[in-house]
Specification:
The protein is of the alpha/beta class. The chain is built from nine helices and 13 strands. Belongs to the LysR transcriptional regulatory family.
């Protein structure tokens, strides 16, 4: 459909409903709260209809496209190793993966399932737990030789730190030891927009990084990286969730089998 045809249809819909669904300007448009409600509940109705139609077909085979959004780290370490198994099990489902560490708007980007890390904000998203992983502060042995090894979090201000450049809910580094707690806002930081890029920088002796255990496990075993400030980093962990829009009751079968597959084969451990 042409943009003008879509605009006319939306205008007729707004007239019938008696509410504005979109706020328009010359360069962009944005959903109103009524528009968001109409869109999200409409998705639920369509999903329920899709589920009904599939339930009465002869083979009841899940099919269609699933748009997923995930970090490069989760894709590399968990999804990529088992993606061929999913394709073999559900040959009529087409996966479309969008890789980014940033938190995006699922409605705007038309994403069916997103993988989120850290504590979840209160929202209209439904979540399924994918487990959690320990976090470690690490650097290379060569970096320690060149710059020394910090023994206290306060000493990190004298070191080159590696962190992400995108916005996230938790922007600080947290350290706990017995009854002491220190919250650090990293300074003197080299920032990149992928967790895997931070890992590569740490391996290249560029500084100190905070990374998930599954990212650094192999490098630690091969002594390419070493843990630091371990006594200040007891039980530090990060949660992983699969999130989607709507209600768990109205998830299309193609999305539901994908979520079940993630829990079974791509769970964090």
């Amino acid at each position: 459909m042409t943009p003008s045809a879509v605009s006319k249809l939306i205008a007729r819909l707004e007239k019938r409903l008696g509410v504005r669904l979109l706020n328009r300007s010359t360069r962009q448009f944005q959903l109103t709260s009524e528009g968001c409600q109409f869109y999200e509940q409409g998705l639920q109705i369509l999903s329920e209809l899709d589920e009904l139609e599939q339930s009465v077909t002869a083979n009841h085979t899940p099919k269609g496209r699933i748009r997923i959004h995930t970090s490069l780290s989760y894709w590399t370490h968990f999804l990529l190793p088992c993606i061929s198994l999913f394709n073999q099990r559900y040959p009529q489902i087409e996966l479309e993966a969008h890789l980014s560490d940033e938190v995006i708007n699922l409605v705007e980007q038309r994403i069916d399932v997103a993988i989120r890390t850290g504590p979840l904000k209160s929202s209209n998203l439904v979540a399924r737990s994918l487990g959690n992983t320990h976090k470690h502060y690490v650097c290379s042995p060569a970096y320690i030789t060149q710059c020394g090894c910090p023994q206290h979090p306060d000493e990190l201000s004298e070191h080159q730190l590696l962190d992400v450049s995108y916005q996230r809910q938790n922007k600080t580094w947290l350290f706990k030891k017995e009854n002491q707690e220190i919250t650090l806002v990293p300074t003197q930081v080299l920032r990149v927009n992928h967790g895997e890029a931070i890992l590569q920088l740490a391996l290249a002796d560029a500084g100190i990084a905070q990374l998930n255990e599954f990212q650094v496990r192999k490098a630690l075993e091969q002594k390419q990286l070493t843990k630091i400030l371990e006594d200040w980093n007891v039980n530090a962990s990060e949660e992983f969730h699969a999130v989607w829009i709507g209600h768990d009751k109205y998830v299309p079968k193609r999305v539901r089998v994908f979520l079940d597959f993630l829990v079974e084969h791509a769970n964090i451990s």
